[in-house]
TrEMBL record:
Domain Cyclic nucleotide-binding: residue ranges: 17-116
GO MF, one example: DNA-binding transcription factor activity
UniProt-listed InterPro entries: cNMP-bd_dom, cNMP-bd_dom_sf, Env_Response_Regulators, HTH_CRP, RmlC-like_jellyroll, WH-like_DNA-bd_sf, WH_DNA-bd_sf
PROSITE patterns recorded: CNMP_BINDING_3 (PS50042), HTH_CRP_2 (PS51063)
Protein name: Crp/Fnr family transcriptional regulator
Assigned keywords, A-Z: Activator, DNA-binding, Transcription, Transcription regulation
Pfam family, one: HTH_Crp_2
Residue stretches making up the HTH crp-type domain: 147-220
Origin species: Paenibacillus mellifer
Recorded GO CC terms: cytosol
């Protein structure tokens, strides 16, 4: 039974769990459908659940007092979403918005606590999952802060290629339609400045567009601009 479950469900950022521990997660989940435009949680809600995405996509955002939105993460099939501190009654720092109809496995905090207390190997895998999140956050802030908006944009394009990219010869097609507004919200820039930076990259023949989707033609140039440290794909993702 466990082999059948694991064969049909994606793993995403839960690949750090062994098959046995992943199935422990599966049996505690309660499935729920979330239509596009709904929310798993809002900033300020109590963080008493984790959410495993079986189908669909979710974005995590942070809003300013002026209403500006910063997209911090975009999650897809096989990813587990939520604030990773099961033993503290904390509140969510972000908002999780459903951007494609989702089927979600909801894991209650009390069930997570029981698994951590009863199975030391599960606790180790859960710590690995938390560690991946911390490294992902650290590298994203590095990219946003250290090399200006061009570096942040190039880093975001590389992350998108690792998450949604399809290799076609020497080029990489980002097989998701990402708007300039989305990109501006990912790096905390204006839409106009993103337009200019993308135009410059096109003039340098680093990228092009195909049916409204971005094609990366010179990955090395993008890596040079953002001083890429060649992080593994589970960290270098959007």
């Amino acid at each position: 039974m466990s082999e059948i479950l694991n064969a049909t469900l994606p793993r995403g950022n839960t690949s750090c769990f062994t098959e046995q521990n992943f199935n422990r997660l599966l049996v505690t989940m309660k499935d729920k459908a979330y239509p596009e435009g709904t929310h798993l949680f809002w900033e300020g809600d109590f963080s008493d659940k984790l959410f495993y995405i079986k189908r669909g996509r979710v974005k995590l955002t942070k809003s300013t007092d002026e209403g500006k939105e910063l997209i911090l993460y975009m999650y897809g099939r096989g990813d587990m979403v939520g604030q990773a501190d099961p033993f503290f009654s904390t509140k969510h720092s972000f908002t999780a918005e459903v951007i494609e109809d989702c089927e979600i496995g909801v894991i209650e905090q009390k069930d997570l606590e029981i698994m951590i207390c009863q199975h030391c190997d599960f606790a180790i895998d859960f710590m690995k999952w938390m560690g991946i999140h911390h490294r992902l956050t650290q590298t994203k802030f590095r990219d946003l802060m250290m090399y200006g908006k061009p570096g942040a944009l190039c880093s975001t394009l590389i992350r998108l290629s690792n998450t949604y990219g399809e290799q076609h010869g020497d080029t990489i097609l980002i097989n998701k339609k990402i708007t300039h507004t989305d990109l501006s919200n990912m790096i905390g820039a204006t839409r106009e400045s993103v337009n200019r930076m993308l135009s410059d990259l096109r003039k340098k023949d680093a990228l092009e567009y195909e049916n409204g989707m971005i094609v990366i033609k010179d990955l090395v140039m993008l890596q040079d601009i953002c001083h890429c440290e060649l992080c593994p794909n589970e960290i270098c993702r959007i």
